[in-house]
Task: structure prediction
Amino acid sequence: MWNVATVFLVIFFFVVGLDVFLRNINFLPTILWGQEIAMISFIWSVFLGGAVVYRKKEHFKIEILPLNIRKNKFTQFFIIILALFFSYIFLKEGIILAIKIGLHRGSRPSGIPLIWVFVSIPIAGFSMILFTIEQFIDNFFLHSNNIDGSQKKLIN
Result:
């Protein structure tokens, strides 16, 4: 999935760079679709990239709990439940947004249905639910996570 997010980010940078280049060259025509493609690719790279970063546990986090409480299995379970809840909100509300608005509205320059933009939200939510289940299995059945990020296998 990170490959797809990377492709969308590369498309974003290429189109924005091309648009800036063409705007500064007077004798070449500017691309009208550039901002739209840049917006769509940026949104997809953000949501898919967010899911990938969540899976790799490289997301931004604030550690307000003391170390001994963070290592507690109950606390880890509670955090997984919260992650499932918020991922479910992404999935559910993203589907509602895509169906209610995305199917009935199009972008102004090209008329592309906005569902192609909004569907990235429930895909990211579904991916995060799968990744949270994967973390649950890893934390409680397969591995014991050390606090320094290394893992010690419990089952061979």
Q: What stands out?
A: Residues 8 and 41 are 5 Å apart (CA to CA). The beta strands are 143-145, 151-153. The chain has one domain: 2-153.
